[in-house]
Amino acid sequence: MKAKKYTIYAVLIVLIAIGIYALTAFQKGGSSLSADQSSSIPTAYVESDTLNASFKMAGRIDQMLVSEGDKVKKGQVLAHLESRELEDKVKQAQAALLAAQSNVSKAKAGVLQAQAGVGQAQATVSAAQAKKSQGTTAVGVTAQASSSQIEQAQAAAAAAKAKLDALKSGARPQELEQAQVSVKAAKETLDLTTKNLERAKKLQEAGAATQASLDQATLDHQQAEAKYNSASQQLNMVREGSRKEEITAAEAQYRQALAAVKEAQAGAGKVTLQQEDVKAAQASVEQAQSAVKAAQSTVEQAQSAVAGANAQVAQAEAALQEAQTYLSYTTLRASEDGIVKSKSLSLGEMASAGFPVYTIETSTQRWAKFYVPETSLNGLQPGDAVQVKLLSGGKELKGKVILLESAADFAIQKPSQSSGDKDVRSFGVKIALPDLAASVPTGSTVLFTGKGAQ
């Protein structure tokens, strides 16, 4: 019994020594735990999120590009479904879009053509209005000129008629008397200038007058003699009456005056014709204005056609986008970096929408969940930096608390009835491991060594 008892004591001593040695070694390699912590160091296993890669639509698997254990990158193609029908729909949608875009171009060309028609119609209106304005002005000018010409021609005809009548009827008594008075006055003037001339000659010979005075008296005598001769001839003509050739000439002048009256009256007829031209120009203006309205209506129709064509383009673009979206559903891509953990389907099998084809273990979001005694928490809070150590190789890593469970999970120490100790309970602490190398396998053991530098 004593030997057995000694053996038990020896084993206990060895175990205690081993525990003390292990605790000392870990305290040298990382941050020390709190003084109240138990002799056991919290351990956990490296874990990672797993993602199910599934198609958004059902179909037959046409290609599988990765296998279990393969490393994949975010966005990498994993598999394809059969997609011929969807590819055909995309091509049809692309053709429909091109046709709709062509219709837009044609409709826009129609708008430009219609706008050009409006411009031409407006130019025609301007030309017709100008022609009407010119015609109206010409009518006013011609009418005024025609009226004046008629009046002048009629006055000339009346004068020619009066002259002809006077020549045919001969001189009136008053004309004869006036002619005789003119001869008498001219004779008296001639006699006076004759006497003045003779006196000037005598004075000049006597040296009492200048040569200039003699020259002036001579000139006055000559002019008086000419007027007397003219008055005498006029008196003779009045006494003799009009000659035949004068009457003939007067008749010719009268006929010419009548012809001028007729010509002026004919010009009034041209005014009527010009007024008809103005009416025709007004009709052209109205017709051109109607053409402008029709052209503007054509522009509106062409613009409506453009709007309709644009709507067709928008519809075709939406149809193409929808077809391309459905076609994209036939390609399965990795949503995160990681390792293919499992494959649920094989090439040629039917895949349902949402059914996992691959399960991927992510390599970018790995963590470990420790159960830390409440005596070792030391005020840990989410966001705190901590130190962990890989059991394999002993490499220390930085971690970050991302979750601290609000309720204790289980007791790691039960009080004995004799010692009076209390329960020591554990809390789940989830720690992110952003610095963990991708070469470290998921499932590796890590040790919690305490809070790190903040």
Task: Record the SSE blueprint.
Layout: H1 2-29, E1 43-45, E2 47-54, E3 59-64, E4 71-72, E5 77-81, H2 84-169, H3 173-206, H4 211-240, H5 244-328, E6 331-333, E7 338-343, E8 350-351, E9 356-373, E10 385-390, E11 396-404, E12 410-413, E13 424-432, E14 445-451
Antiparallel strand pairs: 1-14, 2-9, 3-5, 3-8, 4-7, 5-6, 7-9, 9-13, 10-11, 10-14, 11-13, 12-13
Helix pairs in contact: 2-5, 3-4
Notes on the structure:
The chain has five helices and 14 strands. It starts with a helix and ends with a strand. The longest helix is centred in the N-terminal third of the chain and has 86 residues, at 84-169. The chain has helices spanning 2-29, 84-169, 173-206, 211-240, 244-328, and strands at 43-45, 47-54, 59-64, 71-72, 77-81, 331-333, 338-343, 350-351, 356-373, 385-390, 396-404, 410-413, 424-432, 445-451. The strands form two sheets. Strands 1, 2, 4, 7, 9, 10, 11, 12, 13 and 14 form a ten-stranded antiparallel β-sheet that branches. A four-stranded antiparallel β-sheet has the order 6-5-3-8, with no helix packed on it. It is α+β, with helices and mostly antiparallel strands and 454 residues long. It has two domains: 31-80 and 335-451, OB fold (Dihydrolipoamide Acetyltransferase, E2P) (Beta Barrel), CATH 2.40.50.100; 83-170 and 242-329, Orthogonal Bundle (Helix Hairpins), CATH 1.10.287.620.
